[in-house]
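ok so i was messing around last nite and threw this chain in just to see what happens. nothing serious, just curious
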Amino acid sequence: MRPAWRCDCSRGEPVATLSDVAQSVGVSITAASLVLSDSPGASRISEATAQRIRETAERLGYYPNVAARRLASSRTDLVGVLADTFFYSISLRRLEATTRALLKGGYQPLVWAADWSPDGWTQAHSILASNNAAGAVLLGPTYPVPTTEIARGLTGAGIPTVSFAAGDGLPGAGVDRLGAFYELTRAAIGAGHTKIGYLQPGQVTQPDVLRMAGIEAAVSECPHVTLVTFHPFPADAPPAREHSRDLGFETGRLGAHRYLEDDHPPSAIICYSDDVAISFMHTVQSAGVKVPEDVAVFGFDGLPESSCSYPPLTTIEQPVDAVGAAAVGSLLSLINVPDTASEEYRLLPGRLIARESTGTLPRFPQDGDGPVDPKPHDG
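result:
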C-alpha cells in the first residue's frame, strides 16, 4: 500500500510527494520509501544513493506523515509489547530496548504480561484487536500457549507480529544462542574440563533447544568429554512451581543441590542465565565448594549484576539494544511497507566476557573485546 504523505494546507498546495523524490533521484518509489522510513530493507541500497534520497527529500520539503498513514489504514499508533512476565532482569532490558525503539519510530508501546496464563494471552489478543493496534512484539518464548499460536491469532486479526524468540518461524531478531553456547562449551573444554554440566530450565522452550544444540555440538567434537544435565525440579513437580516468579534464582538454588548430591560432579557448570549462575554459585559456596577451584561456572545474558557477583561471573552478553532495534525495525517495515518487508529472523552474535568464576581460560576474550568468533577452535 502506498503511504499517505503530508500536504501544506496553510498554503493550499501539496508539498513534494514520495514519487517526486524518487523521480528526482532516479530510483523506485520502494527504494525511496525504504530509506526514508529507516527500514532494515534499506541496507540493500548503497549509502551514496541513500544519502542522495535523504538530501533530495529535504531539498524538496518532503516529510512522511505517519499519522496520515495510520488514519488511512484505521490503525492506531499502539504496538503491543507482550511477554509471559517482566520479572526477570533480561526481560526488563528487552522491554526497555523495545519501547525505546518504538518511541523513536513514532509508536506508543502497550505493555502486557500474560503471567503464564492462556487467559492472559486471550486478553492481550482482545485488547490489541479492539484498539486497532498497529503491530505486536513478542519478547520471548511463551508458555503454555506456543508462540506460533499467539502470532497466528494476531496476524489473523491483521496485526503484524515479530518475535525475539528464535526457531518459531516468525520474523524478528535475537541473539545467536546456539553459537553462544557452543563457544562457552569450547572455552570450558579448552580449559581442560572433561566433565561438563548444563543446568537447564524447568520448562524447556525453543531457545533452550538451541542452547542445548550448541553445547552438544561442541561436546561431540571431543570424544573424551562427558556432558551431564541437571534438571532443577523433580519429574512430578507441579507446573505452578516450575513457573513461579522466582524461577531463575530458584532454578539455580535447586540445581546446586542436585550438583551437591552428585558423588562425581562435573568440574564446569554452564547455566542458561546469569540469574541461575549467580544463585548456583551462592548455594554451592555456602556448602564449602570453591568457585572456580572446585567448579567453574558460566552464565548467559551479560547482566550488570554478573560483574558484581562473588566471584564475578563469566558470561555471554546479549546485544539487547541491537536486537530490540532490529526487531522493531522489522515490525515497522511490516507495518509501513508490507509488500517489500523482509520476514527473516536475524541472529546477532553475543559477546563473551571472561571473569573470575571460570579461572584462566585460553583464547577467551576479555571485557571490551569483540563478538564471539563463530568458527570452531582446535584443541
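not much to say yet. The first helix runs from residue 18 to 25.
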